[in-house]
């Protein structure tokens, strides 16, 4: 089932996700629906807060980026209860976009290498190190479960330049080819 994507300004995008257990109701269906939603929306990652759930769950399929970024080859994984445990001091800057912030792409500087501990869809533990664009994709989705959006990491001058676009998203003025849930509007 294709789920709607929650758009910038919705409070759930700022919540820190809660750990889940294998008994989380409907978990396997939720994961399946997240994959379907991500592919339909033309994303390479999707975090649970983006579909209205403040839990520590995200899915990534960066394999389509492998021609440009070889480190993404075979990176297709479900991440549950993830924790980044190491970040390199070296950084890389690349343009990022987000399904929850359609129409906005900005350059973001992130650590070039990370080590992450997580559980897969079968709740098997993993500890893996990723570099380059693979690390960027994981950090972007990981930030979602920490209540952080990529626009929080851009230069303040860039934030000023996109302020009008962000305000429009908060007001529900959204153009996307997928279903969306906009921020609750204040009653006048």
Give an overview of the whole structure:
The chain is of the alpha+beta class and 188 residues long. The protein is built from three helices and nine strands. The strands form three sheets. The protein has a five-stranded antiparallel beta sheet with strand order 2-3-4-7-8, with helices on both faces. A two-stranded parallel ribbon has the order 1-9. Strand 7 and strand 8 form a beta hairpin. The longest helix has 15 residues, at 156-170. The model has no long low-confidence stretch (mean pLDDT 97).
Keyword list:
two-stranded parallel sheet; 5-stranded antiparallel sheet; alpha+beta; single chain; 188 residues
User: How can the largest sheet be summarized?
Assistant: 5 strands, antiparallel
Helix count, DSSP H or I runs of 4 or more residues: 3
Seen as an oligomer or otherwise, the chain set is single chain
Q: What's the Cα radius of gyration?
A: 16 Å
Unreliable residue stretches: none
Care to count the β-strands?
9
| First-to-last CA distance | 35 Å
Beta-strand content bin = 25-35%
| Dominant shape | globular
Helix percent band: 10-25%
């Amino acid at each position: 089932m294709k789920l709607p994507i929650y758009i910038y300004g919705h409070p759930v995008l700022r919540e820190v996700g809660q750990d889940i257990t294998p008994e989380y109701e409907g978990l396997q269906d939720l994961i399946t629906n997240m994959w379907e939603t991500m592919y339909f929306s033309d994303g390479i990652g999707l975090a649970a807060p983006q579909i209205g759930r403040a839990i520590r769950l995200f899915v990534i399929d960066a394999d389509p980026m492998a021609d440009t970024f070889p480190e993404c080859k075979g990176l297709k994984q479900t991440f549950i209860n993830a924790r980044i445990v190491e970040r390199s001091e070296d950084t890389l800057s690349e343009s990022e976009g987000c399904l929850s912030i359609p129409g906005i792409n900005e350059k973001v500087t992130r650590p070039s290498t990370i080590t992450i501990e997580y559980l897969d869809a079968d709740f098997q533990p993993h500890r893996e190190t990723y570099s380059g664009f693979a690390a960027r994709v994981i950090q972007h989705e990981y930030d979602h479960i920490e209540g952080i959006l990529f626009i929080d990491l851009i230069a303040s001058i860039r934030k000023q330049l996109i302020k009008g676009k962000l305000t429009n998203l908060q007001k529900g003025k959204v153009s996307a080819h997928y279903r969306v849930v906009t921020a609750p509007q204040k009653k006048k």
